[in-house]
Specification:
Layout lengths: L1 E2 L11 E3 L5 E3 L5 E6 L4 E3 L3 E3 L4 E6 L17 E3 L3 E2 L5 E5 L2 E2 L5 E2 L5 E5 L3 E3 L3 E2 L5 E5 L3 E3 L3 E3 L4 E5 L3 E3 L5 E3 L4 E3 L7 E3 L3 E2 L5 E3 L3 E3 L3 E4 L7 E3 L3 E2 L4 E4 L5 E3 L9 E8 L2 E4 L2 E8 L3 E4 L5 E3 L1
Parallel strand pairs: 1-4, 2-5, 3-6, 4-7, 5-8, 6-9, 7-10, 8-11, 9-12, 10-13, 11-14, 12-15, 13-16, 14-17, 15-18, 16-19, 17-20, 18-21, 19-22, 20-23, 21-24, 22-25, 23-26, 24-27, 25-28, 26-29, 27-30, 28-31, 30-32, 31-33, 32-34, 33-35, 34-36
Length: 294
């Protein structure tokens, strides 16, 4: 445990890792490293384990020991060096989070982030069989790949979630959910891929570029529970699963070409796109008069 959380003292209470001071676990069994800061945690040389699992807890903006938090709007986790936990879990909390300067690899350990400020996944994240659970009461920005070989991916924000073209998300048997636990809207141009697991969009979604959603040849469904807009193309492959649009598609901004390559059943509500091509499966039109292409 390394902690700067004490009532006494006049400094900010940061934990800063120098660029020439990497943290490396090279022997021993599984263990836990906890960094607890009253303000920021800044990792500039990385944390790695080559001997069993290293659980890493990054707790910024913390007042648990001093009994007070002098500034609830400060206290970020900033990662500027690679983290590899060798099977250990990585947890983060505090105000903001940003890993633009360092990749995160857990080798089967879970990644859990609970923050109240902006969360940015700006470098690659790979958890293997570990789950990925991102939760923020602010905004979420993803601009690099997010991979979980068989882990479940859950991405939640109260503000806007933005996924850029580099932010493709991939699992095999793990489900991928956007907005499962919070109400923030999604703006995305990232592709999403599973191998037989569901892809679910629970809140309003806007395409900011062409997007491909693929659950492979298994039974994974692709579901939009809220509205879908954006003047870009959408490619859908659901294999033995279904494609469900529960709310209006293109109600504000019509989509470009929509192609459904495979699905057992496709359910649409109001639908506005340049074209809609379905090459496999049946289609149920809940409001046929509102189904149109232009």
């Amino acid at each position: 445990l390394i902690s700067t959380d004490r009532a006494a003292g006049s400094e900010a209470g940061d934990i800063i890792q120098n660029v020439d001071a990497p943290i490396s676990k090279t022997a021993g069994g599984g263990t836990t490293l906890t960094l607890r800061a009253a303000n920021d945690i800044e990792l500039n040389a990385g944390i790695t384990s080559t001997s069993n699992a290293l659980n890493v807890q990054l707790i910024a903006n913390d007042g648990a020991q001093s009994g007070h938090d002098p500034d609830a709007s400060a206290g970020d986790v900033d990662i500027n060096g690679a983290i590899d936990t060798n099977g250990g879990a990585l947890t983060g909390s505090g105000f903001g989070f940003d890993n633009t300067g360092g990749t995160i690899t857990t080798g089967g350990g879970n990644l859990t982030l609970n923050h109240t400020g902006a969360v940015t996944l700006g470098a690659a994240v790979d958890t293997g069989a570990g789950n990925i659970d991102i939760d923020t009461t602010s905004t979420l920005n993803i601009s690099s790949t997010v991979d979980a070989t068989s882990g479940v991916v859950t991405l939640d924000s109260d503000g806007l979630t933005t996924i850029s073209s580099g932010g493709d998300i991939t699992t095999t048997t793990g489900t991928i959910g956007f907005g499962t636990n919070r109400n923030g809207v999604l703006s995305t141009t990232g592709d999403v891929t599973t191998s037989g697991a569901n892809i679910t969009f629970d809140n309003s979604t806007t395409l900011t570029g062409d997007v491909t959603l693929n659950t492979g040849g298994g039974g994974g469904n692709v579901s939009f529970s809220d509205t879908l807009d954006g003047g870009f193309g959408l490619g859908l492959t659901a294999g033995a699963g279904d494609v469900v649009f529960s709310s209006a598609v293109g109600g504000t901004t019509g989509l470009n070409a929509v192609t459904i390559n495979s699905a057992v059943d496709v359910t649409v509500n109001a639908f506005d796109a340049v074209s809609l091509a379905q090459t496999a499966g049946s289609r149920s039109e809940e409001h046929t008069s509102e189904l149109q292409s232009h």
